[in-house]
């Protein structure tokens, strides 16, 4: 009879696999790829190693086709779950996602495209979306969680919105062409007035289709205003930058697109109550004002009599003002006549001619005297100038000695025997040669 505590090999491996999978769950592992194999099944098998250990890895076809390219020797970060391949009892890592380690190729490509498209102005869109839109074109996967979240929020908040789903794959090779075609279809239609591009969260590889530069340009050139809601709050793609408006999640996008009908209903009810209260208050105020005006109301004849009396007073004041204005004008006219008689132009001309004749006589007398004074002053200045002129010193027998550079020699120490000097006299120059220097 078999021992009940004895396990078969398959039982042992199965229990070990379950313990590993439950104990670790999803984890991230970093290392270098080696021994990469890609059989016809589409699965990928390789070894992840560092300088002290290694672990076998399996990336199945459903995930491999969405992963970024990698090769032997690449340093990568893997997300996966620890497991055991039961038929052989091999300890392995079932890979869910592959990322270049650190600032790897995908992140570098993302940053490069981001800077390039930003410099080209592809991220300059900022058109407001209609609020709320009448007919929304929803571009996303028909089977993903994003479409369910968006439609549920829109239906709860604003049932009047018409939504047309343009289904597309949101990852893989077919995703980018399908997204671009859907944008073109929406723009050719005359029915839509807004466009929402969305999908749920995922790894960098899962979201990579939304980092395609052709998709970003298609969003930038869209006739319709575009809202992008790709991934979770921490996920950012080039499609988000190119869109007119970005939302952190699909549900948040739906909340931004339309108002909440329940909140509007509450505000409408509150406004109606406020309007009823304001209307009642206004009617009470107007009734009180009517009573006050009725008490102040007088017969029109009294008002007309007061107006006639006021008109008579104004007429009398106007006559007095006009008479006084005429008296003032006549007085001013007489003053002007007297002033003009004192300033007769003919008399002014005669007086000016007399002043001119007297000035001409004074000029004829003063000019010769001024010329004689200036000649005397010029002669005195010339005598003073000759007294301090270097040429006058040379006339007394002195000379100015200069070296070959034109510098004036003041001391014997400034020369050397054999040096040729030039001596300037009152008349002419001499060329000298130094034979010997003396201190005195």
Automatic annotation (TrEMBL):
Bilayer-crossing residues are none
Stated EC number for the protein is 3.1.11.6
Q: Which PANTHER family match?
A: EXODEOXYRIBONUCLEASE 7 LARGE SUBUNIT (PTHR30008:SF0)
- Describe its function: Bidirectionally degrades single-stranded DNA into large acid-insoluble oligonucleotides, which are then degraded further into small acid-soluble oligonucleotides.
By which gene is this protein encoded? xseA
The protein depicted here goes by the name: Exodeoxyribonuclease 7 large subunit
Its assembly, as annotated, is: Heterooligomer composed of large and small subunits.
Task: Report the coiled-coil segments.
Answer: none
Q: Give the UniProt family note.
A: Belongs to the XseA family.
Q: Which GO terms describe its cellular component?
A: cytoplasm; exodeoxyribonuclease VII complex
Name the catalysed reactions: Exonucleolytic cleavage in either 5'- to 3'- or 3'- to 5'-direction to yield nucleoside 5'-phosphates
Q: Which NCBIfam families match?
A: xseA (TIGR00237)
Q: Which CDD domains match?
A: ExoVII_LU_OBF (cd04489)
UniProt entry tagged with the keyword Cytoplasm = yes
Pfam families linked to this entry: Exonuc_VII_L, tRNA_anti_2
Organism of origin is: Modicisalibacter ilicicola DSM 19980
| A Gene Ontology BP annotation from the UniProt entry | DNA catabolic process
List residues of the Exonuclease VII large subunit C-terminal domain: 125-432
**Entry keyword Cytoplasm:** yes
Give its localization: Cytoplasm
Main location per the UniProt record = cytoplasm
């Amino acid at each position: 009879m078999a021992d009940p505590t004895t396990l078969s090999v398959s039982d042992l491996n199965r229990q070990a696999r379950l313990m590993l999978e439950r104990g670790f769950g999803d984890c991230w592992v970093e290392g270098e790829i080696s021994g990469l194999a890609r059989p016809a099944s589409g699965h990928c098998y390789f070894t992840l190693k560092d300088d002290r250990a290694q672990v076998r890895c399996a990336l199945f076809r459903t995930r491999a086709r969405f992963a970024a390219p990698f090769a032997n020797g690449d340093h990568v970060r893997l997300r996966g779950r620890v497991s055991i391949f039961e038929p052989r009892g091999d300890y392995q890592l079932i890979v869910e996602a592959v990322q270049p380690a650190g600032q790897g190729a995908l992140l570098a490509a993302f940053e490069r495209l981001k800077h390039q498209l930003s410099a080209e102005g592809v991220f300059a869109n900022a058109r407001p979306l209609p609020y709320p839109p009448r007919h929304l074109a929803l571009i996303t996967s028909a089977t993903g969680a994003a479409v369910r979240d968006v439609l549920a929020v829109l239906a709860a908040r604003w049932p009047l919105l018409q939504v047309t789903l343009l289904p597309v794959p949101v990852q893989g090779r077919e995703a980018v062409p399908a997204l671009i075609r859907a944008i073109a279809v929406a723009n050719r239609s005359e029915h839509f007035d807004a466009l929402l591009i969305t999908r749920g969260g995922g790894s960098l590889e899962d979201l990579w289709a939304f980092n395609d530069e052709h998709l970003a340009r298609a969003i930038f050139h869209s006739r319709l205003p575009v809202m992008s809601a790709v991934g979770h709050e921490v996920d950012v793609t080039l499609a988000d930058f190119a869109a007119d408006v970005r939302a952190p999640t699909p549900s948040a996008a739906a909340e931004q697109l339309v108002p909440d009908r329940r909140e509007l209903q509450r505000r409408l009810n509150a406004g109606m109550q406020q309007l009823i209260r304001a209307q009642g208050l206004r009617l009470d105020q107007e009734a009180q004002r009517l009573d006050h005006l009725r008490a102040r109301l007088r017969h029109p004849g009294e008002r007309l009599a007061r107006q006639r009396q006021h008109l008579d007073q104004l007429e009398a004041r106007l006559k007095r003002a006009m008479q006084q204005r005429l008296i003032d004008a006549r007085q001013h006219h007489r003053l002007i006549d007297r002033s003009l008689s004192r300033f007769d132009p003919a008399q002014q001309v005669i007086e000016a001619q007399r002043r001119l004749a007297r000035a001409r006589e004074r000029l004829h007398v003063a000019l010769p005297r001024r010329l004689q004074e200036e000649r005397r002053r010029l002669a005195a200045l010339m005598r003073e100038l000759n007294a301090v002129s270097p040429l006058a010193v040379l006339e007394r027998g002195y000379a100015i000695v200069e070296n070959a550079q034109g510098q004036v020699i003041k001391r014997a120490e400034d020369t050397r025997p054999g040096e040729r000097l030039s001596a300037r006299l009152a008349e002419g120059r001499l060329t000298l040669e130094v034979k010997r220097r003396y201190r005195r």
